[in-house]
Amino acid sequence: MRDSAPPARRIPAWELAAGIAWVALVGVLTLTPVGGWSPRMSSGCLLCGELGGADLIRNILMFMPAGLFLARRRVSVTVAVGLGLLLSAGLESAQLVVPGRHAAMRDVLVNAMGVGTGVVFYRALAAGLLNANRAVLAAAALLPIVAVALTGWLLQPLQTDDVYYAQWVPRRPYYARWDGALLDAAVGGTRTPIGRLRNTDEIRASLRAGGPVALTFRAGTPTNSLTAIYVVMDGVQREILMVGADGHDLVVRSRIRAVAWRLDQPDQRFPDFLARHLPSDTIRLAARFDALGRACVSLSGEERCAPRAALGSAWGIVLWKGELAPGLRRAMDALALALLLIPLSLLTATRRGWPAALAWSGTVVALVLVGRAVGLAWPGVPELVALLGTVALAAAPPTLVRRIVT
């Protein structure tokens, strides 16, 4: 008599719920109509477009959960990547009939890479939990430190060497129409009329030195989305500086290193900074920048400086959402920081004793000090809450952690 086949491994309820939530999220992010009808198949270039690097990272991160799920089902990397290709091809084909969506061969490949990355990540973490792999532990300790250092470096200012052009209240599809008017603009005391700036070298030197940028404009009706009041571009349409408004908020954006790597660019927002001024009021605004690109703006005797970027602000250079309320942005910072520390916390939970606790604590201290060295802020309340959450995870019973992960 033949032996009966082993019973199939049941999927835990929490894992099934997470899988359903992931499928729903991917469906919303990829198959929701946006804009008008313009279906087309884009090329397979991996880093094409102004946000090619950000798109690459977003797609990998979005499909990593599928790889984690398949790895828990003991699926090989090859099979997982093949399934990822099939799933991605189906999604991209569906986008051909969704208004405003553009199917891309690049996304098919990158999504499959995300699935494969999820499998490799899970296997490495499981090896560290089950086999006390020191290399995995070292990688988990270095991950948050390197991520924070890289974030601070990418957020630092970077000018271009091309000719500069000034734009006053430019009309672009991605800017809201504004009925105000810019009356005068100067950088470092040098006026910058509309068009090519013949004194580009002088303007560039002033911007690198921190300005100041002085604008005189007639206030308009507050808009429901971002409008640009003053923009400096270079000869290949790379944005160097933008001063604008979003409702009553003042918005400042200056070019950073992340843009050169085709990543997203967080702006600096000053909530309700324009609220005291009525339409048709004449406003004289000044903005200056420190060595880290942090803006300080002054208006009618009031000065505000943008806060330093948070330790967990890496999400902003991958998918910036300036329209989020400040509290939600701080919550995103805390969540990103927690995600960076989760692998190390899981590994720490399976290694009891002072050495493991000191290794975890040393990593957190190094992370904070490195972040400060590259211009990021000290941890605020949201980040401290996130750190406490990872402490609780690191103190979880080892058997529980192994059961959940493996």
Describe this entry's structure for a reader.
By secondary structure, the chain is of the alpha+beta class. Helix content is 46%, strand content 17%. The protein has eleven helices and 14 strands. It has helices at 13-31, 52-72, 77-95, 105-131, 134-154, 200-208, 257-260, 326-349, 354-373, 381-394, 398-405, and strands at residues 41-42, 103-104, 164-168, 181-187, 190-191, 195-196, 213-218, 226-234, 239-246, 249-254, 268-270, 282-289, 295-299, 302-305. The strands form three sheets. A six-stranded antiparallel sheet has the order 6-3-8-9-10-11, with helices on one face. A six-stranded antiparallel sheet has the order 5-4-7-12-13-14. The protein has a two-stranded parallel ribbon with strand order 1-2. Strand 8 (226-234) and strand 9 form a beta hairpin.
The low-pLDDT segments are: 1-8
If strands are numbered along the chain, what order do they take across the biggest sheet?
A: 6-3-8-9-10-11
- Major beta sheet, specifics? 6 strands, antiparallel
SSE-based structural type: alpha+beta
How much helicity do the residues have? 40-55%
How many individual domains? Answer: 3
Beta strand count:
14
Tell me the fraction of residues in β-strands, as a range. Answer: 15-25%
Distance between the termini: 33 Å
Radius of gyration: 25 Å
Q: Quick one: overall form?
A: globular
